[in-house]
Write a structure and sequence with these properties.
single chain; 330 residues; alpha+beta; 60s Ribosomal Protein L30, Chain: A; seven-stranded mixed sheet; six-stranded mixed sheet; 35% helix
Amino acid sequence: MKDQKAGISEFGLIDIIKRRYQTANKGLIVGIGDDAAVFAVDKTRSGLLTIDTLVDKIHFDLAYTPFEALGHKALAANLSDIAAMGGRPVLAVVSITIPRGLGCKDIAKVYAGMGRLAKKHGVAVCGGDTVAGRELSLTIAVYGEARKNNIGLRSGAKAGDAILVTGTLGSSQAGLEILKSKIKNQKSKIFQKHLWPEPRVKEARLLASKFKLHGMIDISDGLASELHHIARESRVGMIIDQGALPVAEEAVTAANILKKDPLEHCLYGGEEYELLFTLPARQAVEARIILSRAGTTCSIIGQVVKGNGVRMIGSDLKNVKIPDKGYKHF
């Protein structure tokens, strides 16, 4: 962890909290360190609990974020965490900090965007808190449930597994960079995933119903960062194939406009909310077919191996280390 003068490292801080201050009880199954806490409910079900915060000028900017999109995205981030555990979201509570200058109509739009997504996934928004403050912020906690013996964990990957990812990658970061640039009149499709992400709840439940889940995480901080999370927690290495990465068309379009490499958006762009998971090779092929029939693309991008770290076989067939970087919260 960095010292106070240099700034705080997010995962260094989390590690200190986990080692020094985490408390537990008999019902706790998984504590700090995964996408959600896991606790016992009954003989067949486990409860899942996650929480996330979005703060103005840190996680969003009202200059280009509609209020409806803000509500949608804030809930989507939490639903994605539940999906990453193979779970079903059940209910949500919301705390909103409201600065001066925002009216009831603005706040109503936030809740309207949130409500539409909640209804789509059968989630009850059933309480929370409202306070005054200097910046607009949203904190949402979501409770979900999963089968007790089939929960997706960052620590579940096994050597020999295939590595899979849903959807395409890079368009969220690409859209953000276009939104923050001075470029005008670009197609709204480029912004879609950044402003209106779709959590892979349906896909996660489908996978959990068909397979014994191995390693799983959602891509919130970037593909490279999440690969490193699974590798560390599972104590394995990972090798990915550059040619197999599902780079989004929007990422290529934005990269051409901004004169950047779309591979950077694909590897290190955050807020994708796709599922990154591992399964035995034969089941991985089956998973691709099942998800495709359900309307979701899925790509096999690499393999879990013995060892540690993350490497990529490039288009020139060179095997290179992938640095552990992505979105940094501090």
